[in-house]
Amino acid sequence: MTMTDTLVGFDDVLASYDPALGLEVHVELNTNTKMFCGCPAVFGGEPNTQVCPTCLGLPGAMPVVNAKAIESAIRIGLALNCEIAEWCRFARKNYFYPDMPKNFQTSQYDEPIAFEGYLDVDVDGEMFRVEIERAHMEEDTGKSLHVGGATGRIHGADHSLVDYNRAGIPLIEIVTKPIQGAGEKAPAVARAYVSQLRDLILALGVSEARMDQGNLRADVNLSLAPKGSGVLGTRTETKNVNSFRSVERAVRYEMQRHAGILDAGGSILQETRHWHEDTGITTSGREKSDAEDYRYFPEPDLVPVAPSRESVEELRGTLPENPLLKRARLQGDWGYTDLEMRDVIAAGVVGLIEETVAAGASPQAARKWWLSELGRRANDAGLDITDLDVTPAQVAAVQALVDSGSLNDKLARQVFDGLLAGEGTPEEIVAARGLAIVSDEGALSAAVDAAIAANPDVADKIRDGKVAAAGALIGAVMKEMRGQADAGRVRELVLEKLS
Amino acid sequence: MSLIQRTAAELADALAAGETTSVELTQLHLDRIAAVDGVVHAFLHVDAEGALAQAAESDARRAAGALLSALDGVPIAVKDVLATEGLPTTCGSKILEGWIPPYDATVVARLRAAGLPILGKTNMDEFAMGSSTEHSAYGPTHNPWDLERIPGGSGGGSAAAVAAFEAPLAIGTDTGGSIRQPGAVTGTVGVKPTYGGVSRYGLVALANSLDQAGPVTRTVLDSALLHEVIGGHDPKDSTSIDQPLPDLVAAARLGATGDLSGVRVGVITELSGDGWQPGVMDRFQESVDLLVKAGAEVVEVSCPNFVHAMAAYYLILPAEASSNLAKFDAMRYGLRVWPEGKPDASAEEVMRASRDAGFGDEVKRRIILGTYALSSGYYDAFYGQAQKVRTLISRDFEAAFEKADVLVSPTAPTTAFKLGEKLDDPIAMYLNDLATIPANLAGVPGISVPSGLAEEDGLPAGFQILAPALADDRCYRVGAALEAALLAQWGGPLLDKAPALEGA
Question: Of chain B residues 27-66, which have a CB less than 8 A from chain A?
């Protein structure tokens, strides 16, 4: 079993050490087909149904590069302010593993498609520049399923199954240069980088970029060096970090763990570590030393990739607005406070609000529905909010009914119930469920009279000038009308009749 | 003359004239295989049923006037390194015993699309590593000229099948001479096309940057006909050249007229001298003289870097092969060996045991060499350096092709050696490919044409003609001219002089 790590308090770590970060993010592209063959590159599917001789590594089969994947790689490179190679090659990374069909991964080595870039990230309102070393193309491996063990991991498993559907799906690996000087903000910088990289990927439209589904996978490298020394210490690489929060926690944990070892006079073992979401700790994976020799050499079955400068410039023209600048613009347009903006960013609903506003709703109304009502429902259903069965156009339509006085907020929530149950358009649901506010003065007046008659002592108090007591009568009327009345108008009627 | 002794072009004519049917032809070849392959062992797998069914379809097409190609109905044998859907493909290795590919190599698909019945799969050195076919895990092939001798390699099976009249046509693959050298020692014609001229999709790679499939036949014209069937761009092979082939059949027919006026022939100085068998050199000189008689202008050309070709080849080839052969790990197909006494063996232990049992010594030797050459710290000194030599060899060719339209040399330094003679001396075995390797390193096309029998042993020698990349037609023109001159001198095909095999 894992021995308990000695952790040093976070502030004490910073008193003695400077952290250096390095992030390797794998982005699974959303191309229709795989990197080197025509198999569909989609998530899920019965095991081993999306395979062919090439992605199964059958003898004699050959790769052909997916042009769309190269385009996506170049767009990612450009969005990260990288140089785009005039000429680059694929290389074979040789190692044996059952989920790798050829026992080599077709990747790029010393000739990446994009290199020398940066991403400016906003860390709690402060800008931090993360230098990008490279972004290169490669293929994903298959997926091993270890059966019979308690943990689903290979240790203790009785046998393993391999699903090659994922083998050959295009990946872009984005590698930062060592990130130094972040100090106490190192965990926050790591989180902000991955989160804002994801925003960029989404804005580019090149990946679904869902961390929970493995479309976006972050490996966190961390090392400590004696404070002020300016050198780089021995690093560990933590894998299986599947959320922004975990990125932050994993950095923090490794900083505290490294310091524990170094303080005790020990040295850090260069190794791969696994992050455990449930317990919030890392454990040792396979040892990874620089001695591991992948015997890279240029892939002889592929020709070099040489994007013309014209095509690169054409792709540059397709880049979306920088998400950071765009946020500043939207905040101004929407009139949100910094706190409101931070909340909608954290909830990942900026895009949804943008579309809802475009469909006619006010920015505040759009924020209210997405952030509270729909955010809660997504949470309850365990869904990503973008996967909720409600569209920005529908939210705008519901808000239009509220604005016109046909619905109040309480009735609007019932319309969302109907939308999630697939009962049709907001208008159809209002009609089918009989949700519209009653604006018939005669019916309202009769209901108010009935409430006064049923509560004579309350009526007396109001006549005596205790206007606050009106709430009890309004409540009774609203109950009688099953909520489908304009509470403001009811109040006016009560006060008129008892003045 | 028996039908099976005719050339493929003659068989196509006989089919057209209604003199025979594809079913009859195919059956005659199957009968010949049954009669002589017990001693020749050119085939690893014979598909009588499939071949006859394809032949019947061809006959039906002919009756309906809907032929697929000039060679529709003429049977063929395929080297066992090309994937054939539904037919075993072993590459001469135990590790692929029993593997039946779910797909056709592009070359095989094109043979089928052209209507050639596939007789079966031919023997080869394991994963095409060798010059004698002795490294086949299924036993050696014997040279029809002398059953005690090697048929060349790695494609000894295809060459022997054609030389023994078991098939009129065959497909080989040539990484360092595996089509041309067997052609030379069996008295047959073999062509290594321009790299990228014939699709490698479905060719189980030995060394991807060197491999090329090509024709194995008894005449130059037959090779041209077959080359046109299998060649041309294939989108499934990224290294395939997206250009139409030159008119190869026309070039062969032009050459056969015997006129080479204006053609400059360069004799490569470095490919002669010590270690070259005198009888082979005599036949070579005689052929050069015949080219002069046909009107060619002969010049001497020097390719000084060819002396380094062998060393570069034996770094690049094992490097690529060591990576290619990694996929044979017992996880998805092929041989799976459980380590003894370990019922709960890990995947890694099963991989190790299976690779240990499934690969032969020559394959292991090259995997070790290649792994070493690619290792961190050695890469620049070995693989990197070899790539530089490769560039120098390409420059030698460029310079030589400024002085000559084609370059010529003996195909192999010696005639067929005895089985077992060089098995324990890998370097001596490797030296057999001295003259053929430079073409693979530079990607240029080459043909080997029989040049006669060496005086001292009465065994066939080969004459190699090399041309610039994409100018395969020059090989056919000069090859056909030489063939015509030699046939006139011999009074018939060289194979007429081969001893009769039992059952013939």
Answer: none
Q: What percent of chain A has pLDDT over 70?
A: 97
* Contact: B238, A61; criterion CB under 8 Å: no
Q: Do the Cβ atoms of A13 and A255 come closer than 8 Å?
A: yes
DSSP state letter for A374 = I
- 1.20.1250, 2.40.440, 1.10.10, 3.40.50: which CATH number matches A441-497? 1.10.10
pLDDT score at A264: 94
Is the Cβ pair A104, B105 closer than 8 Å?
Answer: no
Phi/psi of residue B363, nearest 5 degrees = -65, -45
Q: The pTM is what?
A: 0.87
When pLDDT is averaged across residues B399-409 and rounded to a whole number, the result is 98
User: What is the average pLDDT score of chain B?
Assistant: 96
Domain ranges within chain B, ordered by starting residue: 3-306+390-497
Please compute, for residue B319, the number of CA atoms within 13 A of its CA located in the half-sphere on the CB side: 31
Between chains, do A64 and B236 touch, taking CB under 8 Å as contact?
A: yes
Give the mean pLDDT of chain A. 90
In CATH, what is the architecture of B3-306+390-497?
Alpha-Beta Complex (3.90)
Residues forming beta bridges with residue A77, ordered by sequence position: none
Q: For residues B98 and B107, is the Cβ–Cβ distance under 8 A?
A: no
CA distance A120 to A130: 6
Asked whether B157 and B188 are in contact (CB, 8 A), the reply is: no
Predicted-complex ipTM score: 0.95
At residue A1, the pLDDT reads: 37
B337 contacts: CB under 8 Å, gap ≥ 6 = B330, B350, B353, B354, B356, B357, B358
Q: Find the mean pLDDT for residues B240-269.
A: 97
